[in-house]
Amino acid sequence: MPDNSGFLYAAYVVAGVIYLGYTISLLLRARRR
Amino acid sequence: MTAAASDARSVIVRGIVLTTLGLLGVAAVMVLALWFTPVEATQGPAQKIFYVHVPAAFTALWMAVPATAFAGLLYLWLHDPRLDRFAAASAEVSLVFCLVVLVTGPIWARPIWGAWWTWDGRLTLTLFLFFLLLGYQTMRAAIRDPVERARFSAVLGAMGLVLVPFIHLSVYLWRGLHPKPIVLKPSDPSLPPEMLHTLLYGIGAAVILYVGLVTLAYGIQLAQDLREAADAR
After folding, report:
1. What is the pLDDT of residue B41?
2. Which among B46, B99, B223 is the nearest to A18, CB-wise?
3. CB distance A7–B216 less than 8 Å?
């Protein structure tokens, strides 16, 4: 079995950062309004 | 605080609660996939990127983009600003899910195909959809008149929906590297039950996250519209 777990962790981190980053940007916008 | 401002505030609070649930759901699915779902023998651990990639793609293609398009088309018919506000919120969230698809896909492709990107039909059309959604945001920011902005947005949103069947069928229409659907197909899903359950939980979490983010974005836009209306008076 190939050992490519680094790609798996990278994908999960990047997806988490995108979702979380967008949520934070919305929360900041909500605070400004 | 006026009744309308209080409504906007309650929509925002509801959006925050749902978004939090969605984010916790996505995190739980990652834990489930990492430690409690079997590793696919041929592809190795990288196959588990699937549990984030597919739910994001499903939500973007089968929920967010169609919801944007139908809300826009209904706006053209009914001229209700709530529909335009919803379409705008949904389009913005579609862009985020599309970005997750376009980023996690290449991270999976590198170890499995040996290349980050190929100009395969599925990949190329998804990239087109991303640019269309980006154009939607740019166009909205550029048009000042709300009625004109809503009309143009509705048309562009409908264009996104036109791409969806082509993206789904692209793996049958053109020969490429992207795997064919293993769940959304006429025959039974070709996945072992443990993998299928994790995938379905992933789709559930992504859908909750979509609903939460759209509610939050809608509430923010509603608050802004109310403030602009108050300033204009």
Report:
1. 87
2. B99
3. no
- Please report the number of interchain residue pairs, chain A to chain B, with beta-carbon separation below 8 angstroms: 91
Distance, CA of B112 to chain centre:
25
At B36, list the tokens. Answer: 């409690």
Cα B19 to Cα A6: distance, rounded to the nearest angstrom: 28
Instruction: Please write the tens of the pLDDT for every residue from B78-136.
Output: 999 999 999 999 999 999 999 999 999 999 999 999 999 999 999 999 999 999 999 99
d(CA A32, CA A25): 11
For the entire predicted model, the pTM comes to: 0.94
DSSP B47: G
Phi-psi region of B118 (alpha: psi -120 to 50; beta: other; left: phi over 0): beta
Give the integer Cα–Cα distance in Å for A28 and B24: 20
Residue B211's alpha-carbon distances to B33, B55, B89, B93, in angstroms, are 23, 14, 10, 9
Q: What percent of chain B has pLDDT over 90?
A: 78
- Cβ-Cβ contacts under 8 Å, B41 against chain A: 1
| Encoded tokens for B128 | 């087109």
Amino acid at A2: P
